[in-house]
Design goal:
The structure is a homodimer. The first copy, chain A, is mainly alpha-helical and about 150 residues long. Chain A is built from 6 helices and 2 strands. Chain A binds a DNA duplex (30 and 30 nucleotides) through helix 3 and strand 2.
DNA sequence: TCAAGTTGTAATATGATATATTATAAGTGT
DNA sequence: ACACTTATAATATATCATATTACAACTTGA
């Protein structure tokens, strides 16, 4: 069980837009670079737009980034793109038996710990800025050119 | 996208066995308490057995715990039960375009950070022992009885 | 103004996978 | 020997992520 590729698609998209600052980046171009269906890409972009991370106008060619990359963290993207925002990271089995002392209480006994784990992961995601990733991608590309 | 309920099923099972130390706990009893299909429960138990967390013998009634609860962490259970052990927490979109500088390099630019996040989450899971959970369940049950 | 191209979405199909179910083998213990 | 359990294979069902088809709404340049 894994976190949806929507997250990496979203990061890829933002980096692509940033890397091609001078040209108009369309959802078709992003679909080509990610190798993901254009409708899915537009769906992801739509969520990023709703979160205030990118800008776009219906009919107007090109997606742009709404704020400095140093102000966008992995967490922001993850939250923007995660469709099931309110469910936790862990999927609890649905209906433990209320007639069993353990079944009746296991959920509340575990919830705090599960949240603690999720929070720790999210805090780590808050540490990583998209400006870091652009930087890394650019150095890799430069090193490609010098060989 | 969430982490499979197999994890919480596994924890629930272990706690149930620990709570009923004196009686023989069968997979049927566990299925009843978790409200999960017996075959699934036995599959989870089978993985826990392979990881050295529980003991069982074909034909012999009852599942037992193989080592002190204080030596079993959430991480141990998570690893034991996670079917896709080698794939990471994040699902990367499959085939970014190698003809695009960003598409060609985004994966390696992100991988380190994604691992860092996963590691942070796993470290948090290593902090939590099943003895903590049994303790919490027992205090909740006791407080139920005093009301 | 109109035609080509783009964003934005709805509706549906496909594919993958987690859980449920059915069936049966193999072992235990009274 | 019989009832019960663990173990597992094979299949079905359900859910959900991604792909696809279709079309509406908008922009912009000719």
């Amino acid at each position: 069980m894994q976190i949806t590729s929507r997250f990496t698609i979203a990061v890829h998209s933002i980096i692509l837009i940033a890397y091609n600052q001078d040209m108009k980046v369309t959802s078709k171009l992003i679909a080509g670079s990610t190798n993901v269906n254009p409708v899915i890409v537009r769906g992801v972009l739509s969520q990023l737009k709703e979160a205030g991370i990118v800008n776009s106008r219906q009919g107007a060619t090109g997606i742009t980034i709404a704020k400095p990359l140093s102000e966008i963290t992995f967490y922001d993207v993850y939250k923007a793109v995660d469709s099931v925002k309110d469910e936790g990271l862990f999927h609890f089995h649905e209906n433990p038996n209320p007639d069993c002392p353990v079944g009746r209480n296991i959920h509340s006994a575990m919830d705090g710990r599960l949240n603690q784990i999720q929070t720790s992961m999210e805090n780590e995601m808050k540490q990583i800025r998209l400006s870091d990733i652009v930087g890394d991608v650019q150095s890799i590309i430069e090193s490609e050119q010098n060989s």
